[in-house]
């Protein structure tokens, strides 16, 4: 396991980050703007800023093929940014929501994206040629509270959403003329818009912070504020799931998770380090941290006598213990696959409140 | 016209879309056990006391946690809280670690640990006001009267608090911070 590659971009929280498919551009949501960083050697340097939102940007996503960037913000708007010779040009999306937009992700087909919001709706947005704008259709029922997180099924029709009403749900976001009719799966056969293909609640409830479909799309994992990860295996349409496995951990809550193949999940959150979960339909367990033991702060360093007395003088203590042992120095908000092939993630990236983006190898 | 003070109108009550009208019962899982009454809880209390008298402290704690009235009414919960605290106080400090291992290490132990953590926090919040005398049939009053009661019975509450804190320390060693977080999220209250 190679040492993680740390990019300390600035001293402010990163709400969300996204790499372009060639890994040369890194988009980072910082306060009201999105900053674009360009790779130069081993470092990332600020190259551009996407300005337009009037409140905190909550989420950003770069489409891997088209290179379009979608952002959403607490100002209730979402923009699609396209690169033109004169710079990045935003297009306003008609979201029709009256609360903050909280989360946005492109569908794998890149024809649509979904925006979660505090208005208890998910806006599924697509491009309308005739009018030359992005419009949205709302997934409404039976959401009872703010949508905190979204994840797309590989078929670009099914959409998983986590909410502060403690439910993880799977919806159909099928839009005529945009989507091809999906193959029937365990989630459902006929999938008109707003079909509810699954609704899951943990025993210990808790806001859902992260959801993810497995690479095949035949399993769903979600994590919430109850410090647990739940994996759901659907059986057949309108039937209770074949298995719903809950792994309650001794950790602080996890915020985000990704699948690595069908038998491994990587999740990170308030414990500031990524954890590995392993298992299958018969049971899952926490396999441990991805942080190398005694990495990061590398234990107590050899301090010179001068340094020791200086510390005692300045701070009244011989050792500075304000640094965490983990690579991230604060809560991790987002975990994303960095390099993957056929569902196997060989490296992934995390970003958090400490202003760092870290690339880990699995 | 001037009689109505518009600033004091609670607009959340009038807005069906408001988050103040969130139905909390939707957070309860479908597997919630049958509702229990205080007499059921009293029966459990007798069984638990029998186990305690027989010296089977581990069995007593296990039984008390397995029969927690998660779906019961407030009275049943009060009675059961008294039972659990009685068990916790009846176990010596040197035995705590061993008992916890036994109760929380076996099959279904994680749930028992979470349940015990709920009782520890509930016990700490109720400590002093109703810790030892809450089997009495009177209805517990509003928050205000509880505050007064706490001030009056300072002595007994302090001792109970130290027992609960000891258990808390031992339990966190075993189950980590996750268990504390789950006390806050879980709507199946004890």
Automatic annotation (TrEMBL), chain A:
WD repeats lie at residues 50-82. GO terms for cellular component: actin cortical patch; Arp2/3 protein complex. The keyword rRNA processing does not apply. GO terms for molecular function: actin filament binding. Keywords: Actin-binding, Cytoplasm, Cytoskeleton, Repeat, WD repeat. GO terms for biological process: Arp2/3 complex-mediated actin nucleation. SUPFAM superfamilies: WD40 repeat-like. It is found in: Cytoplasm, Cytoskeleton, Actin patch. The keyword Repeat applies. Gene3D superfamilies: YVTN repeat-like/Quinoprotein amine dehydrogenase. Pfam families: WD40 (PF00400). Functions as component of the Arp2/3 complex which is involved in regulation of actin polymerization and together with an activating nucleation-promoting factor (NPF) mediates the formation of branched actin networks. Belongs to the WD repeat ARPC1 family. This is Actin-related protein 2/3 complex subunit. It comes from Penicillium angulare.
TrEMBL record, chain B:
The keyword Cytoplasm applies. InterPro entries: ARPC5, ARPC5_sf. It is found in: Cytoplasm, Cytoskeleton. It comes from the Eukaryota. Keywords: Cytoplasm, Cytoskeleton. GO terms for biological process: Arp2/3 complex-mediated actin nucleation; regulation of actin filament polymerization. The keyword Cytoplasm applies. One of its GO terms (cellular component) is Arp2/3 protein complex. Pfam families: P16-Arc. Belongs to the ARPC5 family. Functions as component of the Arp2/3 complex which is involved in regulation of actin polymerization and together with an activating nucleation-promoting factor (NPF) mediates the formation of branched actin networks. Arp2/3 complex plays a critical role in the control of cell morphogenesis via the modulation of cell polarity development. This is Actin-related protein 2/3 complex subunit 5.
């Amino acid at each position: 396991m190679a040492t993680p590659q740390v990019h300390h971009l600035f001293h402010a929280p990163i709400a969300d980050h996204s790499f372009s498919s060639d890994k040369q551009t890194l988009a980072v949501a910082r306060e009201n703007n999105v900053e674009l960083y360009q790779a130069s050697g081993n470092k990332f340097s600020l190259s551009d800023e996407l300005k337009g939102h009037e409140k905190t940007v909550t989420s950003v996503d770069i489409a891997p093929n088209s290179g379009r960037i979608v952002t959403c913000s607490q100002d209730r708007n979402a923009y699609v940014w396209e690169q033109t010779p004169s710079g990045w040009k935003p297009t306003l999306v008609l979201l029709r929501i009256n609360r903050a937009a909280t989360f946005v992700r492109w569908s794998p087909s890149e024809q649509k994206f979904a925006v979660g919001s505090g208005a208890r709706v998910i806006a599924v947005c697509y491009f309308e040629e005739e009018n030359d704008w992005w419009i949205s259709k709302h997934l409404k029922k039976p959401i009872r509270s703010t949508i905190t997180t979204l994840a797309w099924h590989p078929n670009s029709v099914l959409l998983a959403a986590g909410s502060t009403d403690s439910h993880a749900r799977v919806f159909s976001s099928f839009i005529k003329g945009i989507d091809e009719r999906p193959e029937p799966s365990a989630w459902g056969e006929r999938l008109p818009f707003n079909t509810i293909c699954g609704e899951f609640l943990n025993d210990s409830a808790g806001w859902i912070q992260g959801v993810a479909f497995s690479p095949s799309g035949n399993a769903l994992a979600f994590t919430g504020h109850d410090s647990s990860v739940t994996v759901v295996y659907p059986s057949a349409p309108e039937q209770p799931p074949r298995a719903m496995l809950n792994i309650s951990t001794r950790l602080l809550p996890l915020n985000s998770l990704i699948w690595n193949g069908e038998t491994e999940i990587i999740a990170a959150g308030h414990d500031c380090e990524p954890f590995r979960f392993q298992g299958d339909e018969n049971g899952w367990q926490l396999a441990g941290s991805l942080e190398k033991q005694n990495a990061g702060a590398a234990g107590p360093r050899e301090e010179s006598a001068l340094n020791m007395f200086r510390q005692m003088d300045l701070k009244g203590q011989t050792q500075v213990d304000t640094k965490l042992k983990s690579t991230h120095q604060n809560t991790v908000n987002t975990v994303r696959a960095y390099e993957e092939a056929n569902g196997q993630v060989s490296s992934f990236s995390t970003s958090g409140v400490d202003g760092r983006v870290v690339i880990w190898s699995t | 016209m001037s009689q109505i003070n518009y600033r004091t109108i609670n607009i959340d009550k009038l807005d069906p879309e408001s988050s103040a009208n969130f139905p909390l019962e939707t957070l309860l899982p479908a597997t919630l056990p049958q509702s229990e009454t205080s007499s059921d809880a009293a029966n459990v209390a007798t069984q638990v006391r029998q186990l305690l008298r027989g010296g089977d402290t581990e069995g007593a704690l296990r039984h008390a946690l397995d029969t927690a009235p998660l779906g019961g009414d407030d009275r049943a919960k009060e009675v059961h809280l008294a039972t659990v605290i009685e068990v916790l106080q009846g176990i010596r400090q040197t035995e705590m670690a061993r008992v916890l291992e036994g109760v929380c290490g076996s099959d279904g132990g994680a749930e028992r640990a979470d349940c015990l953590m709920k009782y520890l926090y509930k016990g700490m919040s109720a400590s002093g006001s109703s810790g030892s005398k809450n089997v009495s049939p009177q209805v517990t009053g509003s928050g205000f009267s509880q505050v007064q009661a706490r001030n009056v019975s300072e002595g007994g509450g302090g001792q109970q608090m130290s027992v609960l804190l000891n258990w808390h320390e031992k339990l966190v060693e075993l189950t980590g911070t996750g268990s504390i977080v789950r006390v806050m999220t879980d709507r199946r209250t004890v």
